[in-house]
Amino acid sequence: MPRRTIIPVVSPVRNGLPLLYLVEASNAVAAILLVVGLSFYTSHRFGWGARENFSVAALQGALYMFGALLAQRVSRRWGREKSLPWLYAGMTTFAVAVGISASLHWTVLTALLAVLETGLVAVSWPMLQSLVSAAGKRSRLSKRLGLYNIIWSGLGAIAVAGSGAVIQHAPAWAFFGVIAAGHFFAGALILYRARSVSIAVDFENDDSAGQSRSGTERPDEATLRIHRLALWLSRIALPSTYIVVYSISPAIPSLHAIRQLTPTVATLVGSAWLVGRALAFIVTGSTSFWHKRPGLMFVASITMLFGFVGTIVPGTLTELSPGWALSAMIVAQIVFGLSIGTIYAASLYFGMAVSEGSTRHGGYHEALIGLGQVIGPLVGATMQWVYPGTLWPAIAAISGLVSLTVLLEAAVGFRASRF
Question: pTM here?
């Protein structure tokens, strides 16, 4: 049976869901700037190219995967509510240290501190996802997670788009000052929530699997089979999604078309895929038709591959006029963002629906993201070391990896006869 703890009413805020969304909003700005905006910063401040940015992204991915897998153990030992404030305090401290190091132009130390900060970010996300999943009726899970995805992706897109002005015009520490502020306010809000939540329900016990949080019956077996298949497909696609995401992020600042722009304009152009992802979350969060159509994961994986190639290739071609290159990149990024948003939303929703919203499955979800974040940049960095000065080998290798996962999805889907 699930373990439930009832805390006396101290405020009318039911389950503290609005406060959880505020925590997410604050930390999302910090986290996305750290993992997506960092390459724009290092390219401008340190003069780094794709090789250095790929290498840092790969290290971030390794720490992210480790941190995500550690989340369940930390949550079980200290609890989500107690762990999160300490995690946000640690992130804030690291962000301040990174800002100081960047101001002193200690490039290697700056990168290492940013990598360590990324590990703490990864520990926190599964806990927050689990809290949001548990804060309400099962029948509203899709809408809760939909709004959750819209908040972090929308604010992340705005943060990255506007970060170029900070990178270009503000002092060197300011970029990380914004990140530190995001972590700090997230920690303050989670502490406030601990004092104001009226009812706390702890579903960390894995024996809760098979029970409904709202007291209603689980979905019928046929629906569960569809959900499990969709979960398998999305979990196959999720690492390849982030292979591409964390290959695009360090590569875009080094593209010929982007190097002609100021940082202020470059981040506006380079954040178009983040806008596409937010649009996908709006659609998946406000609809349910995709809950019984696992084949959409396969379609999204194919369009994701085309979106990746369509983003990188025009930016590398010196023969194209800047206007055509940037226009093609923006359109391809939107397609790419819509695809990866669909896959991400499906992985999170079906994982939480099948597992009853446990931190463990939130950790698996984030660990798969970390796996992709390691593989993509690692392949990109390796190709840059072997073939310096050109992105074409990296593009070919990364596209080949994603193509293999698409074929694996096809095999799994057709075997289950559910496409």
Answer: 0.83
